[in-house]
Design a protein that fits this description.
The protein is mostly helical. The chain is built from 17 helices and no strands. The longest helix is centred in the first third of the chain and has 34 residues. The protein is globular and about 60 Å long. One of its GO terms (cellular component) is plasma membrane. This is Sulfate exporter family transporter. Keywords: Cell membrane, Membrane, Plasmid, Transmembrane, Transmembrane helix.
């Protein structure tokens, strides 16, 4: 049968498969390296999604994938990432909010909002493009790589910007995990205070365990709770960004006439729907575990695709400004966290 007469789904799969398989190979290597880290060091200092980007960038620096791979890598970088974000909605636990109390929840929301504004302002003052400044702000203020990955498709960020933001955030995230416990004696923090401080500062949920374990069990418990509450801010922030985003090809003032379904991406609506279903008790534990696993795998796959599309020369040109923006934003976030501790009188 001539190729042009093949059924459309079959042609589509044939176009996507090479790129998806390429991304799968990079993802497999990243997961293997993460497992090796755990065996050698007892924990993974660099998560698989970070390693997937680094491996993808390294491969792209010596070999530029041709047209045969483009459809699959583009699909992995966009559509599969959107599906992963949707699935994350099922992990939102309403009991986490109820257990924390209104004061701490409101304080965390205030710190995140302040950090977003300050981080964005720092990025713009340093000359970062608006989309890159948003990525850095969200990564620092909410949950690092996951926030960057979730924000990117909403604001239409380029792959180079996403990879640059994640790469520098990942490196700094490791340094934070290693250095944060050293601040306990310098700042005179109690285990409870340090748990709140670490939860408001550390990027990724897995990293909070490594950052708080040296201080004590109370710091681990409090830090994990605060970090999870901070992660819950991702949904409202991404929805707000979607509502503020200017539609492609639109002009100033045209946003009001665009239907809501175009302003709020389908995967964000799905995220909120799954979060509501979880709150209503409509998601069984087995399905929850499966959705979390699927979201993790798809995110690593999409990060591999982003890495494969990155021009290293673009990263090197943006590196100094991005690094400065991330460091200064992190310092502002830490100061805000200490301010919240004093304000609430946490002992």
């Amino acid at each position: 049968m001539p190729n042009e007469l093949l059924p459309s789904p079959r042609r589509t799969l044939g176009a996507l498969l090479p790129g998806i398989l390429l991304c799968s190979g990079v993802s497999g290597a990243a997961l293997a390296l993460q497992s090796l880290e755990v065996r050698v060091f007892g924990q993974a200092w660099l998560e698989a999604l970070v390693l997937a980007i680094l491996i993808g960038v390294a491969l792209r620096s010596v070999w530029a994938p041709g047209r045969r791979w483009k459809a699959g890598t583009d699909f992995s970088a966009k559509t599969l990432l959107e599906v992963a974000v949707l699935l994350l909605g099922a992990s939102i636990d309403p009991d986490t909010i109820l257990a924390a109390g209104p004061g701490l929840v409101a304080g965390i929301a205030g710190v995140v909002a302040l950090a977003l504004a300050v981080s964005y302002g720092i990025g713009r003052l340093l000359g970062l493009p608006p989309r890159m400044a948003v990525l850095v702000a969200c990564g620092n203020s909410i949950c690092g790589n996951s926030a960057i990955a979730a924000t990117a498709p909403v604001i239409g960020a380029h792959g180079d910007d996403v990879a640059a933001a994640i790469a520098f955030t990942a490196v700094l995230g490791v340094l934070v995990v290693l250095g944060l416990p050293l601040l306990v004696p310098l700042l005179g923090l109690t285990p409870m205070q340090y748990g709140v401080f670490a939860g408001l500062t550390v990027y990724a949920v897995p990293q909070i365990l490594a950052a708080t374990a040296p201080v004590g069990a109370l710091s681990v418990q409090v830090g994990t709770l605060v970090k999870l509450l901070r992660v819950l801010m991702l949904g409202p922030v991404v929805v707000a960004l979607a509502l503020m985003a200017k539609p492609e090809g639109g002009e100033d003032g045209a946003k009001a006439s665009v239907p809501l379904r175009r302003l709020v991406p389908w995967f964000i609506l799905g995220f909120l729907a799954l979060a509501g279903l979880r709150a209503a008790g409509g998601i069984p534990d087995a399905a929850l575990a499966a959705s979390q696993t699927a979201a993790g795998v798809l995110t690593v796959l999409s990060m591999a695709a982003l890495g494969l599309g990155v021009d290293v020369r673009m990263l090197s040109r943006a590196g100094l400004r991005v690094t400065a923006a991330v460091v200064l934003s992190l310092a502002a976030l830490g100061a805000s966290g200490l301010g919240l501790i004093r304000l609430l009188g946490i002992m």
